[in-house]
């Protein structure tokens, strides 16, 4: 039987060969070269994560934070480069989520 860690590394290498990863990596590289766009995306993602953490832990949502996230989302989605990056990130996240689900079902997690 193969070492489970070796298989995990093989899976990671396979993920890097998917169109979804290649699109994500290419768009991320372009975004990273535009400091203003990168800063905006980093701010949006950080605030979104904070808001998601509040929801997941049952905390009351910060209305000001929610308004900021909604506003930033509108700005992000109106920028073609940022919108394309978000879509590529979502597509890659879906693959990773599907793989996690497959593993979870196999080991009853």
Describe the model.
The chain has helices spanning 4-16, 19-32, 35-56, 63-78, 80-106. The radius of gyration is 17 Å and the shape is flat. Helix 2 packs across helix 5 and helix 3 (35-56) packs across helix 4. The chain is mainly alpha-helical. The mean pLDDT is 93. It is 84% helix and 0% strand.
Keywords, separated by commas or semicolons:
single chain, 109 residues, mainly alpha, 5 helices
Outline of the structure:
The chain is mainly α and 109 residues long. Helices cover 84% and strands 0% of the residues.
Broad structural category: mainly alpha
Q: Quick one: biggest sheet?
A: none
> How many helical elements?
5
Number of β-strand runs: 0
Q: Ends: how far apart? A: 22 Å
**What are the secondary-structure elements, in order, as H or E?**
HHHHH
Molecular shape: flat
Rg from alpha-carbon coordinates: 17 Å
- Fraction of residues in β-strands: under 5%
Low-pLDDT windows of residues: none
Helix-residue proportion: over 70%
Overall pLDDT: 93
């Amino acid at each position: 039987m193969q070492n489970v860690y070796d298989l995990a590394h093989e899976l990671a290498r396979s993920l890097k060969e998917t169109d979804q990863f290649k699109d994500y990596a290419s768009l991320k590289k372009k975004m990273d070269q535009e400091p203003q766009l990168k800063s905006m995306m980093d701010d949006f993602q950080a605030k979104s994560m904070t808001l998601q953490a509040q929801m997941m832990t049952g905390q009351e949502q910060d209305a000001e934070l929610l308004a900021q996230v909604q506003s930033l989302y509108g700005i992000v989605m109106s920028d073609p480069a940022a919108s394309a990056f978000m879509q590529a990130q979502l597509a890659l996240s879906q693959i990773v989520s599907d793989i996690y689900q497959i593993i979870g079902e196999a080991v009853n997690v």
